[in-house]
Amino acid sequence: MITIQSLSKHYGRQKVLDGVDLTVSDGVLFALLGPNGSGKTTLLKSLLGIVAPDPSGEIIFNNRSILGKKSYKRHVGYMPQNPKFPPHLKVRELVTLFEKLRQKKGVHKEKLAADLQIDRFWHKPFGELSGGMSQKVNILLCFMFETSLLILDEPTLGLDPSITFYLKQLMREKKTEGKTVLFTSHVMAEVEEIADRMALLVEGKIYTVIAPQEMMRQRKSKTLEEALHLFWNKTNPDEKNI
Amino acid sequence: MKKIFNSPVVTIALFEFRENIRNKWLLIYGLSFLIFSGILTYIGTGDPLQASASLLNLVLLLVPLFSLVFGSISFSEALPFHEILVALPISRRDIFLGKWIGLGTGLVLSFLLGMGAGSLIQFNIAQQGFGSYLLLLCLGCCLTFIFLSISFYVVTLARKKELIFGWMLLLWFFFFVLFDVLVFGVVLLFGDYPLEIPVLILMLLNPIDLARVMLLLKIDLAAMMGYSGALFQKYLGNTLGLFIGGGALALWTLLPAWLGLRTFQKKDL
């Protein structure tokens, strides 16, 4: 379980996260939604220690405070948005590097590499790969280890429909295994389809945490997209709190 | 021993080293030393002492410039990849030190191979003055790590990536040209006062000057050292001068690296 308490983040004078309180239970597919610049990526990066949140907040993972620590990352897989791998580096070398740094073998490596057809460019450097190919490697690096929490930032961005389908299946499998998948997305149909719960983040604040189906029921909408449209178009910001 | 080789610092350093030896710029760097040192040694008398004095300016010009520029580009371009590495169960210190050691070793190897293939093969190791040539190589290695540390520190401080290259050229210009002009200006302005100790201290503030004076002390070419070098020899002598100079160079290597590491540990990626 992840518990985020009063988490804020400033970049200079700009407030990106504003006292975020959020709890994500184990074994759920949890979507983090919000417009561009709402603080989704900063929140995910705070969970991973990539950005340092303001000292007033707290993040608790498996009953332990994790701010400034590294050992908890053994249990976390991360799939960044638009990863930039060194251009001279070969796919095989990067996978080996990750295994060495994590000091464990990627138990799902062979299966994922075969399913994603990565074996075709296993010996190629990243400079020669297309964006879609790099994204496949990104999936491999995130899912090949046994981790209890998976953090995915816009995971389906730049993927073809077949791999998108595969990735969604993979996310569901992880959930079935009792693992937590926390992801961001701009594709509402995707969230509607796979997420158990979602949080709406606007200007660094969590407005609501709700199941997508519940949001659609409350707004009497057929799609999540429509429900969110109705939600955003309420003029009084206080009314957005459900 | 196995534990050390499997440590994250060594893993990243080896990875970084492999990455850099494939880089064409490192090849060009090594080749430029090969060509210039080969020519300078060939047209000289083949005397290591004379060759060291001739090669000194080449080393003082190229090593800081390339280490600053290449180090800063390599480190700033690796930041998005470091973001991915930070999400792994390793510390930021491992990433920073691994990068520093791996990149520095690649630069040093390129420098040594270039210089070695260009001039070392033309010497007789038993010749007098060979020690000066070895000192020149050591100073080149020290300057590599010093300016690599400075470049890393500046990158960790920089908010705008596009300005980093300009900062590097400015720093190189400051250490290579401007610093001496400033020292000269101080001497002219305050010529009526006893300036020996302040000038000695000033000289410790420029690793390029320090390296120059240390080699010339070894060669015993006081006439080429200029005002500050002559003072260095007069007050500290050869052995003490080399010892103090070596200590200052070590401090120049470690201090910016430590400051860079401190900033990197808090930096948002």
Largest sheet of chain A: 6 strands, mixed
Please report the number of helical segments of chain A.
8
Amino-to-carboxy terminus distance of chain A: 23 Å
Q: State the separation between the terminal residues of chain B, measured CA to CA.
A: 33 Å
Largest sheet of chain B: none
**Succession of helices and strands of chain A:** EEEHEEEHHHEHEHEEHH
Radius of gyration of chain B: 20 Å
| Average predicted local confidence, pLDDT of chain B | 86
Helical segment count of chain B: 10
Beta content of chain A comes to: 15-25%
> Which CATH class of chain A applies here?
Alpha Beta
Mean pLDDT of chain A: 89
Tell me what you see in this structure:
The complex is a heterodimer of chains A (242) and B (269). Chain A is an alpha/beta fold. Chain A has eight helices and ten strands. Chain A has helices at 40-48, 91-102, 109-115, 131-143, 161-176, 188-194, 212-218, 224-232, and strands spanning 2-11, 14-24, 29-33, 58-61, 64-65, 76-79, 149-152, 180-184, 197-202, 205-210. Chain A has a six-stranded mixed beta sheet, sandwiched between helices. A four-stranded antiparallel beta sheet of chain A has the order 2-1-4-5, with helices on one face. In chain A, β1 (2-11) and β2 form a beta hairpin. Chain B has one domain. In chain B, α3 runs antiparallel to α4, α5 runs antiparallel to α6 and α9 (207-219) runs antiparallel to α10. Chain B starts with a helix and ends with a helix. The interface between A and B is medium-sized, with 30 and 24 residues.
List keywords for this structure.
A: 242 residues, alpha/beta, Rossmann fold, six-stranded mixed sheet, four-stranded antiparallel sheet, 8 helices, 10 strands, 33% helix, B: 269 residues
